[in-house]
Amino acid sequence: MNGTKKEQEEAIHYYDKISTIYDFISNWYYKKPRKYAIEKLKLKKDQVVLNLPCGTGVNFKYFQHYLKNSGLILGIDLSDGMLKQAEQKIDKNDWTNIDLQLENAIMVDQKWVNEYSNGKRIEKFDAVFCDLGLSGLPDWKNIIDNMISILKPGGSIVILDWYVEKPGLLGKFIKWIGKGEVKRPLWQYLQSKIFDFELKWFGVFNGVFVASGVKAPK
Ligand SMILES: C[S@@+](CC[C@H](N)C(=O)[O-])C[C@H]1O[C@@H](n2cnc3c(N)ncnc32)[C@H](O)[C@@H]1O
Hints:
Blueprint: H1 5-18, H2 22-40, E1 48-51, H3 60-67, E2 72-77, H4 80-93, E3 98-102, H5 110-116, E4 125-131, H6 140-149, E5 151-162, H7 168-178, H8 186-191, E6 195-202, E7 208-214
Parallel strand pairs: 1-2, 1-4, 2-3, 4-5
Antiparallel strand pairs: 5-7, 6-7
The site of S-adenosylmethionine (SAM) has 21 residues, from helix 1.
C-alpha cells in the first residue's frame, strides 16, 4: 500500500469484510511467532500494554497469560468489523481489563494518549506490540516513532511482520491477502531506534520476523 486515502479505505473495507474468517488464517500461520513475540514483551501483572493494530484480538489470550485480567490491554484498530470480533472474545471470556478504540494508527501519539487517559492515569505504556500492521500502514516510520515515544523508559516494543528481500510471487500474494508490502525496512528502522535489539525469523518462507527491544532507560 502506498498510503493514499483511497487505498487505506479499501484496506479497511477489506478487513471489515474478512473479519469473521480472519482468525482461521491468522491462528494457523502466525501462532508460533505470536507466542514468541508476546513472550518478548516481558509482561507482568498490572502492566499496561498497547496492541496496535489489534484486529480481532487474537493476541488477547496470550497477553492474559501474563496479565491474568489485571492492568490494561488497549487494542486499537480502524476496522469496525475486526473490533466487533475482538469485542466478542472479551465478552465470551469475561475479560475486564481490555479497552478497544476505533482509531487510525497514525493518530496514536502522546497527545492522543493524554486525551485518552484522562481520568485513567495512564501516561506511558509498559509495552507496545505492533503485529502485521506496519507492512500495510502509510507513515510507518512516524508510527514507530510514536510508539516509542509513548513507551515508558525501559519499556518493551515488539514488531511482528513480514520482510522478504526478493518478494517475487510471495510479495504479490501477501499484498493480495494482507494488503501489505513485504520489503519495508521495518526491523532495520526499529533497530536504529531502540536498545537490546533482537531479531528472529519464522514461517515456511522465513519471511516473518519478530523484532524486539527496549526504550532507553532514563
Ligand atoms: C493483518 S491485520 C493484523 C491484525 C492483528 N494485529 C493481528 O496480527 O492479527 C491488519 C490490521 O490493520 C488494521 N488497519 C489497517 N489500517 C489501519 C490504520 N490506519 N489504523 C489502524 N488500524 C489499521 C486493519 O483493520 C487490520 O485489523
